[in-house]
Write a structure and sequence with these properties.
Elements lengths: L11 H14 L8 E4 L4 H4 L1 H9 L2 E4 L10 H18 L5 H17 L11 H13 L13
Parallel strand pairs: 1-2
Helix pairs in contact: 1-3
Length: 148
């Protein structure tokens, strides 16, 4: 997870702010060929959002209506986030608490959580190893950069 934003409402800038964070975090890597998977929420289909994603070298993938496969990974991570952080550490007094809690959880998830599907290593370590292999010409693992 490289881009996120907390808000009290689902405004268009919510998704755009998260995208900008992800683009900033990836400024040292190529975003060409990036596929951003999301649901059909209007904030992800807005002209400003899709234009900015395209400028960064990415494309939207929202799948077909009623098709959950395109967004399955995101929904799984959101479920973990809600179960492990939001419900476990609540009730939250304000949005600032949620933002700080989210920052801590994402840092833990990316840098310390061991994920079995990727070899029992944290996602950040897996990605670093991927880019090392990519520069050596060995492309086992991920095929495209990801915002998730």
């Amino acid at each position: 997870m490289v881009g996120w934003r907390a808000s009290g409402s689902l405004r268009q800038d919510l998704a755009l702010d998260a995208l900008e964070m992800a683009i900033w975090a990836r400024q040292d890597t190529c975003l060409g060929g990036l596929v951003h998977h999301s649901d059909r929420g209007s904030q992800y289909l807005s002209i400003r959002y899709t234009e900015r994603l395209q400028e960064a070298g990415g494309v939207c993938s929202v799948g077909s209506r009623g098709d959950s496969y395109d967004n399955a990974l995101a929904e799984t991570i959101i479920g973990l986030f809600k179960a492990e952080l939001i419900r476990n550490r609540g009730p939250w007094r304000n949005l600032n608490e949620v933002e700080y809690g989210t920052l801590e959880w994402i840092d833990w998830f990316n840098h310390r959580r061991l994920l079995e599907p990727i070899g029992c290593v944290p996602p950040a370590e897996f990605e670093a190893n991927y880019w090392i292999r990519e520069t050596r010409g060995n492309t086992d693992g991920l095929k495209q950069p990801s915002l998730r």
